[in-house]
């Protein structure tokens, strides 16, 4: 028996996980101030990042990666657009020229189709059919060894009463569909992709916040069978999935961590110094190929989330807009060694980014009509990003008037400093003295970059958010993480 286990482990390592773990990065473009693709490719090369995931399969973006040597993961959100073999073949035909020259390795389908599938089975079935046909079309075109189609997953696909990894199994409601998906992945030697957001994962489970960091300082640990000990939430969640895969009959399926990040604002404990600490623990751990208690020595390919902030829509939770390592002006927020060597360095700053002039829009305080002021505040925050005002955020300590100014300025900057965007029916004025308050930065944005592209293509604009209120913030923060 022991012999069998050892034999199995040796086989498992030798057959599946020969390469070293890769540290990639995710780059999304749901933001008004976007870095241009060529700048991003340059940034990745400067920082020696070998792989990237993009949230599109749009041609102008793929073009920028041609010849860079960076391996790419694409995302197709609108699954119905490639449903059925004809559309799948058409997609493959259109993208084929990039398969080689832009080093495409994986295609992720949908946002979290199994989360949606918990309540919408027809959609989930369509998504799985599409996974199968798209991979078929790719195989048919001769790229099956190179390109794998898969779904990203969050913890919501597991049973929700788990207290240790060995409790984990796939959620009863989607077990059958998961079994079918795993069969398709296994046939094609495709990986299982999971997403881990430690700061919110520990909050969700009510674990000690220290358990989010991978530097062995957490007094709280989780013990599992066979004397395994978990000192951080990253290994804990990884091994929950290992157990679920074992129980589903695919114990040797590769697991990739498709998103792992740490926001710098919009959540208690989210700031640049905690983000720095988090990655200082995580990246050398990943690069060490140390593995986890359930898969010792197995490399875990991991994708840092994310390159830049995005004012992601639809609006669910404040910290979602602060995942970026870089601010929109191309400056790094904190030290991070993306090569995993744990060096105390800032990543290279993006080149050629131009700022708008030093102008801000503030509340002129010449009214006593509070109702009107609040109305304008809501209008501004419905269209621009006010998430730093949220509880635990960097601007959560402002006065009422400062709150108004913050909102007005975010709206003004999001509109590239159009004076009209600072009118607010006579309540706003443009100033040239920086109104920032302590650690709460009133940003000046960068000049309008490339605006064409996937934001519109994915059907997303700066559209309506729910009226800004603390209850939305609190309830939706955790809810959205696991159920979106
Ligand atoms: C890209 O992926 C291929 C195949 O997995 C691998 O051989 C190659 O080393 C990767 N390139 C980089 C730059 O990591
Ligand atoms: C979790 O709940 C499921 C279904 O109710 C049950 O079968 C399973 O034993 C429970 N697991 C634990 C660890 O309590
Ligand atoms: C736990 O250890 C026993 C004895 O070494 C072994 O038979 C069993 O497979 C182990 N279980 C796991 C999940 O590793
Ligand atoms: C960042 O968050 C940590 C944890 O809440 C806190 O101890 C620290 O003071 C914060 N740092 C800054 C610069 O706000
Ligand atoms: C500022 O706005 C935030 C977010 O809407 C709110 O939570 C806070 O109470 C406001 N502060 C004041 C002083 O009105
Ligand atoms: C408030 O002051 C600005 C000048 O700063 C002026 O243009 C505007 O008309 C005033 N609004 C009201 C309601 O008095």
What does this structure look like?
The chain is α/β, with parallel strands linked by helices and 484 residues long. The chain folds into two domains: 2-321, Alpha-Beta Barrel (TIM Barrel), CATH 3.20.20.80; 360-445 and 454-483, Methane Monooxygenase Hydroxylase, Chain G, domain 1 (Up-down Bundle), CATH 1.20.58. The protein is built from 14 helices and 15 strands. The strands form four sheets. It has a nine-stranded parallel β-sheet. It has a two-stranded antiparallel ribbon with strand order 8-9. Strand 2 (51-54), helix 3 and strand 3 form a beta-alpha-beta unit. Helix 4 (85-101) packs across helix 6, helix 6 (121-140) packs parallel to helix 7 (175-187) and helix 11 (370-383) packs parallel to helix 12 (400-414). The longest helix has 20 residues, at 121-140. The chain is globular, with a radius of gyration of 23 Å. The two termini are 42 Å apart. Bound molecules: 2-acetamido-2-deoxy-beta-D-glucopyranose (6 copies).
């Amino acid at each position: 028996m022991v012999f069998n286990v050892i034999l199995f482990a040796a086989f498992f390592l030798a057959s599946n996980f020969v390469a070293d773990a890769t540290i990639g990065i995710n780059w999304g473009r749901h933001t008004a101030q976007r870095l241009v693709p060529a700048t991003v490719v340059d940034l990745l090369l400067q920082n020696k990042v070998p792989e990237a995931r993009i949230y599109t399969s749009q041609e102008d973006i793929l073009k920028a990666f041609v010849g860079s040597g960076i391996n790419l993961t694409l995302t197709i959100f609108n699954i119905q657009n490639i449903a059925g073999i004809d559309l799948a073949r058409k997609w493959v035909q259109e993208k084929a020229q990039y398969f080689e020259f832009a080093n495409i390795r994986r295609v992720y389908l949908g946002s979290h189709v199994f989360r949606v599938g918990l309540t919408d089975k027809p959609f989930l079935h369509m998504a799985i059919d599409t996974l199968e046909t798209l991979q078929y079309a790719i195989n048919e075109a001769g790229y099956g060894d190179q390109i794998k189609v898969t779904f990203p997953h969050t913890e919501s696909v597991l049973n929700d009463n788990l207290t240790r990894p060995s409790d984990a199994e796939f959620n009863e409601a989607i077990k059958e569909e998961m079994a079918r998906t795993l069969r398709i992945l296994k046939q094609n030697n495709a990986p299982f992709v999971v997403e881990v957001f430690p700061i919110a994962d520990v909050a969700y489970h009510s674990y000690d916040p220290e358990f989010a960091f991978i530097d062995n300082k957490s007094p709280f640990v989780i013990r599992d069978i066979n004397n395994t000990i978990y000192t951080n939430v990253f290994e804990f969640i990884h091994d929950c999935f290992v157990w679920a895969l074992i129980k589903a009959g695919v114990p040797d399926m590769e697991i990739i961590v498709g998103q792992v990040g740490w926001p710098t604002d919009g959540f208690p404990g989210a700031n640049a110094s905690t983000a720095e600490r988090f990655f200082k623990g995580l990246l050398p751990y990943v690069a060490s190929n140390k593995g986890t208690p359930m898969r010792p020595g197995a490399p875990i390919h991991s994708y840092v989330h994310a390159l830049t902030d995005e004012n992601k829509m639809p609006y669910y939770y404040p910290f979602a807009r602060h995942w970026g390592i870089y601010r929109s002006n191309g400056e790094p927020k904190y030290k991070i060694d993306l090569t995993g060597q744990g060096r105390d360095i800032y990543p290279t700053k993006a080149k050629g980014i131009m700022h708008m002039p030093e102008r801000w829009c503030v509340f002129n305080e010449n009214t006593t009509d509070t109702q009107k002021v609040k109305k304008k505040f809501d209008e501004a925050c419905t269209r621009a990003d006010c998430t730093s005002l949220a509880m635990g955020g960097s601007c959560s300590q402002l006065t009422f008037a400062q709150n108004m100014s913050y909102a007005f300025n975010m709206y003004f900057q999001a509109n590239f400093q159009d004076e009209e965007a600072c009118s607010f029916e006579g309540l706003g004025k443009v100033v040239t003295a920086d109104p920032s308050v302590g650690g709460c930065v009133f940003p000046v944005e960068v000049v309008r970059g490339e605006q064409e592209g996937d934001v519109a293509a994915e059907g997303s604009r700066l559209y309506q958010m729910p009226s800004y209120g603390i209850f939305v913030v609190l309830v939706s923060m955790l809810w959205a993480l696991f159920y979106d």
